[in-house]
Amino acid sequence: MLVSILHRMTGAGLTLVGLPILVWWLMAIAGGPNSYASFSDAATSWVGLIVLIALTWAFFQKTFAGIRHLVMDTGMGFELRANKIGAIVTIAASLIVTAALWAYWLGVFE
Q1: What DSSP assignment string belongs to 1-49?
Q2: pTM of the predicted model as reported, rounded to 2 decimal places
């Protein structure tokens, strides 16, 4: 049930938070160097990084939950044990992939 709720919440979050940030980013690119520098400063602040990391996690959570639902649409994964494992894998994979991606982007592996 948690994965289903997260699937809906991440969809709403990506729509209500992610879409305006995407539009802001595109407007900043179209606005020229000063406008983009302003966006970049906001995005690289600690609040901006938290929001971007949360949006990245929401994207991966939504993606992995969608894949899980697609598998279930084929008739697989309805047994209680398989369903529970699929839910745990969905949450764990989204956290691991988000952490790995941001560690790479922030240069932790260098």
Answers
A1: -HHHHHHHHHHHHIIIIIHHHHHHHHHHHHH-HHHHHHHHHHHTSHHHH
A2: 0.90
